[in-house]
Amino acid sequence: SSDTTPLLNGSSQDRMFETMAVEIEQLLGKLTGINDKMAEYTNSAGVPSLNAALMHTLQRHRDILQDYTHEFHKTKANFLAIRERENLLGSVRKDIESYKSGSGVNNRRTELFLKEHEHLRNSDRLIEETISIAMATKENMTSQRGMLKSIQSKMNTLANRFPAVNSLIQRINLRKRRDSLILGAVIGICTILLLLYAFH
Fold first, then answer.
1. In whole angstroms, how far apart are CA 59 and each of 3, 52, 133, 137, 184?
2. How far is it, in rounded angstroms, from Cα 170 to Cα 72?
3. Which stretches are transmembrane (predicted)?
């Protein structure tokens, strides 16, 4: 609101960005933990090793996590660079103000000051865009975490169903073997009776 007040240092935007950066780092940590749990599940003994769809899903979520992490660090680095640039511009602005109060301002000095003021306004606009990008990234990661939890629950459900399916297949195989033995015994008895009948 004032030309003598820095736009970023100690402002609400600076504090907001720092708070959001901490929240996004926490979300990235949780997302990494979920990916690690998914990797442990795919490497467990109860999961078929040839499940290509499961491996593709895991790799896809790893790529998404890597993209989010890269975008976050890039956005944070841009914010810090803009803040450092504004700190440098703030010292120049103070020099201009001291010159203005000491010896007056001619048209050239006024023009330079207005340009510098416009640069500071542009920096403020860039910071607002950076915060908007960070908020969108946070929302996307929250949605991604929900999707990963849903996938993890589905995989756990499938893992719980595999033992029941294996038990059912084993029962079917035992019943087939029993039927084969009964059929063989009946055929053998019938053959023996026919031979006894033929010779007597």
1. 51, 11, 25, 20, 52
2. 51
3. 181-199
127, HSE (Cβ side, Cα atoms, 13 Å): 25
**Three-class secondary structure assignment of 26-88:** HHHHHHHHHHHHHHHHHCCCCCCCCCHHHHHHHHHHHHHHHHHHHHHHHHHHHHHHHHHHHHH
CB 115 within 8 A of CB 125: no
Q: Tell me the C-alpha to C-alpha distance, in Å, between residue 129 and each of 13, 33, 157.
A: 11, 30, 42
Q: pTM score > 0.85 for this model?
A: no
**Residue type (1 letter), 145:** R
**CA gap 121, 101 in Å, rounded:** 23
C-alpha to C-alpha distance for 45 and 130, rounded to whole angstroms = 45
Place of tokens 């330079």: 112
